[in-house]
Amino acid sequence: MLTPDIIKKKRDGQVLSPEEIKFLVSRYVKGEVPDYQMSAFLMAVYFREMSETELLNFTLAMRDSGEKIDLSGIRGVKVDKHSTGGVGDTTTLICAPLASACGVPVAKMTGRGLGHTGGTADKLESIPGFSVELSKEAFFFQVNKIGISIMAQSQELVPADKKLYALRDVTATIDSLPLIASSVMSKKLAAGADAIVLDVKFGDGAFMKGLDAAGKLAEIMVKIGNHAGKRTAAFLTSMEQPLGNYIGNVLEVIEAFKILKGEEKKGDLRKVSVQLASCMVLLGGEAASFGEAEKKVLGALDSGKGLDKMEELIKAQGGDPRVVEDTALLPTAALIQTVCSDASGYVQAISAEAVGRTSLLLGAGRTKKEDKIDLSVGIILKKRVGDQVEKGEPLVEIRGNDPLKLNFCQKKIKEAYRIGTEPPVLSPLIPRIIL
Ligand code: URA
Ligand code: CA
Fold this sequence. Notes:
The protein folds into 3 domains: 3-48, Up-down Bundle (Transferase, Pyrimidine Nucleoside Phosphorylase, Chain A, domain 3); 79-324, Nucleoside phosphorylase/phosphoribosyltransferase catalytic domain (Pyrimidine Nucleoside Phosphorylase, Chain A, domain 2), CATH 3.40.1030.10; 332-420, Aldehyde Oxidoreductase, domain 3 (Alpha-Beta Complex). It starts with a helix and ends with a strand. 46% of the residues lie in helices and 15% in strands. α5 packs across α12 (268-283) and α9 (177-190) packs parallel to α10. The protein has 16 helices and 13 strands. The strands form 4 sheets. It has a 4-stranded mixed β-sheet with strand order 1-4-5-13, with helices on both faces. The structure holds uracil and calcium ion (CA). Calcium ion (CA) binds next to loops.
């Protein structure tokens, strides 16, 4: 087998055999296929895409490129939940304790922030003492003991994706359906859960902006999961504006607490989190129907059992559980600025990507892997799409530690908002669920 022949075959739109795919992926990981050949292959995939069987084989070859986690030491049906990446998207911190409180063991490996999107591992580290760097033994032990643990994703998981993602980033091949699907699903399959709930974002702040493209991505990922022997479901959820009102690490933790405490009874973040948790409870076998699962989840929310589980999680991983009741114990930014509207009317749009990027500029995310992030900074939205606003009324509050950055971000955040005279037509929050 020769690498140029494999590239040529894909370039001409033919279907690669499982052997050819395995050859290419395994040799790339070993450094025997250079980046320039892989770049050509990725661009061929970008234009020619892959057949379903080919994509499944590609995903499995990636899954098999490194360590695979064996969760069989944990009792019960393990359900993983994954978001394709959003802004103000704190659903894990809400649905994980809720699903756990309903009897589903949650053994969650989670990532750090990527570009303008946040990561659960970083958010949890804003809780004083909380550690996400656990040994696998400690992780398993904790899930068996209290039903939940969240640890940083192992560095050895799917090395093929680490190399490919970095290459895609610099060869304009990130936004390819087969390449995203294989990247996400190879990691989910290697992480070892029995069932997978996917939250596929569409809209301004998502990788796949259009609803149709995101729907196709969701369908294909569900097929890959099911073919690989894991019960898989997917939600399509809107990233037309940030999901929650709090963006930035500690701020997102605070918003999750508010929802678990029942202080926030409405809002998109709560809605999506409840739906995702219900699906986890259904796939985890703790309910016979979606309706029954939803009832259980709302019960755990109203009774405070979800909040108790969050406290247990924090305590078990070395964090100070008093932060749940007293958020003043969490890191706080020194400076607060309010940004007001220049016009009266209705909020037409809030660019999730622009809000995410502004939060990144404030210091809440990384532009390089080595960057240290400022856990205390971020943005609080005071107005959402559809809200009426008067000239001079606050749109957002910015929290930061550097006056120069704060001033710059004040301008940037205004550009994220579009105000118009007519009430906008709202796009649905969860247009589709694939079960
Ligand atoms: N998330 C991933 O893990 N991979 C992608 O390609 C896109 C989003
Ligand atoms: Ca159970």
